[in-house]
């Protein structure tokens, strides 16, 4: 069972083939982005004279720098608020055994059953009436509110399994509930905080529909909406478009390759609840 | 939970009481900010959205009329409505089956002793972290008549299989599913991998010593222990498939001729291009029912397994 047999070799060969099939779209993405518009090389061949011109053009014409900054702000603020608010709410809900706390917890969980499409139109109107259309704040509020059910679900599950002794010790020492939470409980739930951060950050950075609704037409755009508008504007110039796409996914891919272990754990671990 | 509290109360009554009184006073301050945002962004608009489904509201007029179940009936009479429901269920079902079978096979393969397993894991999961917008545009280009897919088929001598992948109404929906599969099979793989790594090597080796072949070992030992991973994966792909929006919106806008509309893309076009808020809301209610039914079945299955 532990040896590398001819069966293993066959498996290895077929899996490498599968890997190459998976890589093919990325390969096309990269070679097209490196080709000048008039490049004469065959379609699927690497460029004869690779150029980075597409990247600097896309960066300037698409205003991608500002969009990346906006995506960064939206992601960081959304993640920070989600972590603090969800952890704080989950703490009493997982510790108190009262009817009200159970009712409230189920109320949050009900949100897991509601697809965002149901709230789409009325929420759009409310945000518009509040004058938050075209502002990052509007997107952040929608993100954080919508993220509460899943994050609270993750936190509450983790906190239930946590022994209460540390908190009791803190209470004996005279710490208030707030201080107990912040200084004792919050550091103890660090593993699940990691999961919440990763899942929320990836989902927020990649989100398209929410920023499309609330930011399109304004000068405040996130990277996904900017790329969408960019493609609409430069129609068939695929070399340019692909350079823009690479710029938009590079930050998250770099993060993925450097924190691969944690990110995969976050995705796999978040669901054991 | 309740037993837990009662036991602790018996142990040390005076201390306990002081702690819990302090706790109870401030408890709602902990919950309030989360609850306020949640009600604002989810509960209140969802309730209002459900109510719109029973009106003929166009999004602008001041006095929408109550029309009962007319908007729901319209889903069945509108060819786009019917197609979108069919497509949504087809995508959810097909993607769930293919993605989970393939995800499990890939997970088993990269959990073996092959040398390329670490590279393959990183590679196959990578599309999961890429935004659907990038994935959609990339594949839209690959699927054009002279795009990468047709060129590659030509290059390996399969030129006869060339298709207009997104332009042919009979094929487009399957092309979209290929993209969803490419993007998310790594997610299934990772969850199955986590499940596989939780199975002690000794059990499998013991079975091997007892003479169980690889298929028998998988079916009798690995599969039952993987049950929670299977449930979670099925759930994720089912709900993800039901809600599918980004990829369709980018690649086909529901076309050609409405052939690839999903419920989500039809909600968007009816609400934001056609001004049929009532109809869009009815579609959203139908989608919610599908998602809720899928979730409740999943919850039941998980509860059964954990017993």
Record the SSE blueprint.
The complex is a heterodimer of chains A (273) and B (307).
Chain A: H1 6-33, H2 53-61, H3 64-95, H4 99-110, H5 116-129, H6 136-160, H7 165-172, H8 177-188, H9 190-206, H10 209-215, H11 223-234, H12 238-258, H13 260-269
Helix pairs in contact in A: 1-12, 2-12, 3-4, 3-6, 3-9, 3-11, 4-6, 6-9, 6-10, 7-8, 9-13, 11-12
Chain B: H1 2-11, H2 13-52, H3 70-77, H4 79-110, H5 117-125, H6 132-142, H7 148-155, H8 172-197, H9 201-209, H10 214-225, H11 227-242, H12 246-251, H13 263-272, H14 277-306
Helix pairs in contact in B: 2-14, 3-4, 3-14, 4-8, 4-11, 4-13, 8-11, 9-10, 11-14, 13-14
Q: Give the class of chain B from helix and strand content and strand pairing.
A: mainly alpha
The largest β sheet of chain B comes out as: none
What's the rounded overall pLDDT mean of chain A?
87
pLDDT average of chain B, as an integer?
Answer: 85
Distance between the termini of chain A: 34 Å
CATH topology of the largest domain in chain B: MetI-like fold
CATH level-3 fold name of the largest domain in chain A: MetI-like fold
Number of helices of chain B: 14
Outline:
Chain A has 273 residues and is an all-alpha fold.
Please describe what this structure looks like.
The complex is a heterodimer of chains A (273) and B (307). Chain A has helices at residues 6-33, 53-61, 64-95, 99-110, 116-129, 136-160, 165-172, 177-188, 190-206, 209-215, 223-234, 238-258, 260-269. Chain A is mainly alpha-helical and 273 residues long. Chain A folds into 2 domains: 6-51, no CATH class; 62-269, MetI-like (MetI-like fold). The model of chain A has no long low-confidence stretch (mean pLDDT 87). In chain B, helix 4 (79-110) crosses helix 13 (263-272), helix 8 (172-197) runs antiparallel to helix 11 and helix 11 (227-242) runs antiparallel to helix 14. Chain B is an all-alpha fold. Chain B folds into 2 domains: 2-42, no CATH class; 72-306, MetI-like fold (Orthogonal Bundle). The two termini of chain B are 18 Å apart. Classes of the chains: A mainly alpha (273), B mainly alpha (307). At the A-B interface, helix 1, helix 3, helix 4, helix 5 and helix 6 of A face helix 1, helix 2, helix 4, helix 5 and helix 6 of B.
């Amino acid at each position: 069972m532990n040896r590398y047999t001819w069966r293993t070799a066959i498996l290895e060969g077929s899996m490498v083939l599968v890997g190459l099939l998976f890589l093919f779209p990325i390969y096309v993405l990269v070679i097209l982005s490196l080709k000048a518009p008039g490049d004469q090389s065959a379609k699927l061949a690497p460029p004869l004279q690779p150029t980075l011109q597409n990247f600097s053009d896309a960066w300037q014409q698409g205003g991608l720098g500002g969009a990346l900054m906006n995506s960064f702000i939206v992601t960081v603020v959304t993640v920070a608020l989600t972590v603090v608010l969800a952890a704080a709410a989950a703490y009493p809900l997982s510790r108190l055994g009262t009817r009200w706390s159970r009712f409230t917890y189920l109320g949050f969980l009900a949100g897991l059953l509601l697809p965002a499409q149901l709230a789409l139109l009325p929420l759009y109107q409310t945000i518009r009436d509040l004058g938050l259309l075209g502002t990052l704040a509007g997107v952040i509020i929608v993100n954080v509110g919508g993220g509460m059910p899943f994050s609270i679900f993750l936190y509450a599950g983790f906190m239930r399994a946590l022994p209460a002794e540390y908190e009791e010790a803190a209470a004996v020492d005279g710490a208030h509930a707030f201080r107990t939470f912040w200084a004792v409980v919050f550091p103890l739930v660090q593993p699940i905080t990691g999961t919440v951060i990763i899942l929320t950050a990836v989902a927020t950075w990649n989100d398209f529909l929410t920023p499309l609704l609330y930011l399109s037409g304004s000068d405040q755009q996130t990277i996904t909406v900017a790329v969408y508008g960019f493609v609409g504007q430069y129609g068939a110039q695929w070399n340019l478009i692909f350079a823009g796409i690479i710029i938009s996914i590079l930050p998250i891919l770099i993060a993925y390759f450097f924190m691969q272990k944690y990110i995969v754990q976050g995705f796999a671990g978040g669901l054991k609840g | 939970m309740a037993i837990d509290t009662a036991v602790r109360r018996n142990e040390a009554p005076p201390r306990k009481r002081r702690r819990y009184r302090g706790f109870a006073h401030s408890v709602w301050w902990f919950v309030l900010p989360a609850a306020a945002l949640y009600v604002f962004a989810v509960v209140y608009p969802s309730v209002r959205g459900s109510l719109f489904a029973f009106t003929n509201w166009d999004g602008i007029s001041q006095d929408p009329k109550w029309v009962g179940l007319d908007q729901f009936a319209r889903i069945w009479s509108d060819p786009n409505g019917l197609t979108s429901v069919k497509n949504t269920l087809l995508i959810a079902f097909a993607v769930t089956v293919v993605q989970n079978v393939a995800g499990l096979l890939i997970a088993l393969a990269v959990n073996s002793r092959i040398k390329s397993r670490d590279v393959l894991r990183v590679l196959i999961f990578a599309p999961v972290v890429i935004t659907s917008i990038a994935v959609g545009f990339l594949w839209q280009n690959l699927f054009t008549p002279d795009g990468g897919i047709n060129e590659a088929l030509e290059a390996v001598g399969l030129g006869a299989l060339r298709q207009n992948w997104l332009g042919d109404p009979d094929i487009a929906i399957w092309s979209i599913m290929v993209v969803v599969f490419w993007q998310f099979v790594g997610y299934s793989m990772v969850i199955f991998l986590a499940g596989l790594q939780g199975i002690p090597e000794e059990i499998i080796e013991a079975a091997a010593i007892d003479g169980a072949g690889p298929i028998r070992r998988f079916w009798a030992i690995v599969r039952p222990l993987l049950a929670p991973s299977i449930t979670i994966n099925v759930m994720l792909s089912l709900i993800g498939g039901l809600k599918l929006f980004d990829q369709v919106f980018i690649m086909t806008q529901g076309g050609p001729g409405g052939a690839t509309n999903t419920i989500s893309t039809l909600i968007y076009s009816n609400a934001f291009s056609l001004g049929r808020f009532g109809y869009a809301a009815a579609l959203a209610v139908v989608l919610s029912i599908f998602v809720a039914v899928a979730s409740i079945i999943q919850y039941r299955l998980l509860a059964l397994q954990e017993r």
